[in-house]
Amino acid sequence: MAFLRSVATTTAIAAASAFPAAVVLSSLSPSSSSSFVSFRFRFPKPQNRAFLSSASSLLNPNPPFLATSFAHSSSATQMDAPASEQKPSFQSDGALPELLTEYMVDMKCDGCVKSVKNKLDTVEGVKSVEVDLNGQVVRVLGSTPLKTMTEALEQTGRKVRLIGQGIPEDFLVSAAVSEFKGPDVFGVVRLAQVNMELARIEANFSGLTPGKHGWSINEFGDLTDGAKSTGKVFKPSNEANEPLGDLGTLESDESGNAFFSGVKEKLRVADLIGRSIAIYETADKSDSGIAAAVIARSAGVGENYKKLCTCDGTTIWESTGNDFVTSKV
Does residue 35 lie within any of the structural domains? Predict the structure, then answer.
């Protein structure tokens, strides 16, 4: 099935080669002499512009903050505040920053629309909801974790698929996904760019042993030897403190399930494509890692309205459980 994960498949194939992902990313990685505006990607504009424009008005009416930050940044080093002014780089407590999230929901009538809206209105952190019945698209603005929103939509009795997250503007890579597909550890990690200085991270895992596990973004997407071949914890050359890719620890319950939601400062999603996320047996990351998955570009808002898979002709609603990772975020 090739809906949201068509890009993930391509990235996984590239990662399977012996070349370090750092080489693949050489044109994306920031340097002290490179301007981010020169690395700007342009993605196809969504066809449903009326709905997209309407949803974009839900955000801050100021100019696109992320694109503006890129345009006015002459170098990566200029964006780093003095060490004395830096806040903690990783935070897992408190409310998440607001993002737009798009779902494809199997709706057929106005009654379906009313049911979906009424359900989401009861979810804490949801600020506003817009529904396109003809396109079967539900767009939610808020700080609610993806897992909570997805479960709420599924409780309406309708089929639900996450199709995009971020802001409806044209700037670099706004979202990424890393899928763990077993045989022991299953899960999904989603990263979304909130602004140039902040990324939102949400993760859900199953199959872990109870207790604390370290996890990190590692240098390479080479899974030839599992987590062992993914290199060291990702640390940009201009990073003087702890490695930027250090994600701290996860704590799994007695059933081996772990859920995380938080933010990471100075993390740029565009710099992570082709690298990997690794999970360790212990909290101090002393072992070589028990599981790893490549980080692939994921669809942003307005980038994925496909309902038909061109590879096998099936629709998004005909997909089976084998097409999606068991642990959902």
Answer: no
**Whole-prediction pTM:** 0.69
Distance (Å, whole) CA 174 – CA 167: 8
Read off the pLDDT of residues 270-285 as tens digits, 9 standing for 90 and up.
999 999 999 999 998 8
Residue 81 inside a domain? The answer is: no
pLDDT digits 0-9 by tens, 59-92: 443 433 333 333 333 333 233 333 333 344 555 5
Helix (H, G, I), strand (E, B) or coil at 291: strand
User: How many alpha carbons lie under 13 Å from residue 139 in its C-beta half-sphere?
Assistant: 28
Structural domain including 92 reads 1-30+47-73+87-329
**DSSP string for residues in 256-280:** S-EEEEEEEET--GGGTTT-EEEE-
Give the full edge-to-edge strand order of the sheet including 258-265: 90-91, 258-265, 198-206, 186-195, 175-181, 291-297, 276-279, 211-218, 246-252
